[in-house]
Design goal:
This protein has 184 residues and is of the alpha/beta class. A hairpin with a 2-residue loop joins strand 3 and strand 4. Helix 1 packs across helix 2. 22% of the residues lie in helices and 32% in strands. The strands form two sheets. A six-stranded mixed sheet has the order 4-3-2-5-6-7.
């Protein structure tokens, strides 16, 4: 795993500062009625933990998991799983994601949460990649804007289960990935 070159994209202090600023924006938006924060299991855990700690008062947050099915080379979301029973009826839901690229998973989540009775569904993303969209999903609260140029790692985002512990966000370019991880 250590043979990959990781280029710095966002330093730890920059992330801390920008997440704190986002927390202030979210708090202003939800001043009268705090949201139910739902974090997608995986890469957004560190982001969500830091984000909810910037919010004052009582904030309810839970985890969700998306079951994905592969078909003809495409990954499609098929089911939302709540590790803990979460009622969303009448709630103002704030989805927290690490990276929003194609928007397919987020569109699915929004539709499903609305079917479950959510009064509102908004989206916060650590890295928003609008140039990669295949849907009309809009990120309401982006921290950073990015492009697809390799694989982002660090600050909870992992590659093959590794690098999520890094305090910064880095990029591993495809040509820098170690042959052992690519199966050849």
């Amino acid at each position: 795993m250590n043979s990959s070159v990781i280029d710095l994209v966002y330093a730890a202090e920059e992330i801390r500062r920008e997440v704190a600023a986002l927390g202030k924006r979210i708090e202003a938006e939800y001043r009268r009625s705090p949201p139910l924060v739902l974090s997608l299991l995986g890469g957004s855990l560190v982001f969500c933990a830091d984000l909810v700690r910037t919010l004052t008062g009582s904030v309810r947050f839970e985890l969700v998991q998306i079951v994905v099915q592969e078909s003809e080379g495409q990954r499609e979301p098929r089911e939302i799983r709540f590790p803990i029973s979460v009622g969303v009826e009448g709630e103002r839901v704030l989805l927290v994601k690490d990276v929003v690229d194609t928007g397919v998973t987020e569109a699915y989540l929004e539709d499903e949460l609305r079917e479950l009775g959510a009064a509102e569904v908004r989206l916060a993303a650590l890295v928003d990649m609008p140039g990669e969209r295949k849907t009309d999903v809009r990120v309401d609260f982006p921290v950073f804007a990015g492009t697809r140029d390799g694989t982002l790692v660090g600050y909870g985002m992992k590659l093959d289960g590794h690098y999520g512990n890094l305090p910064f966000i880095g990029r591993i370019r495809a040509e820098d990935r170690s042959p052992a991880r690519d199966g050849g």
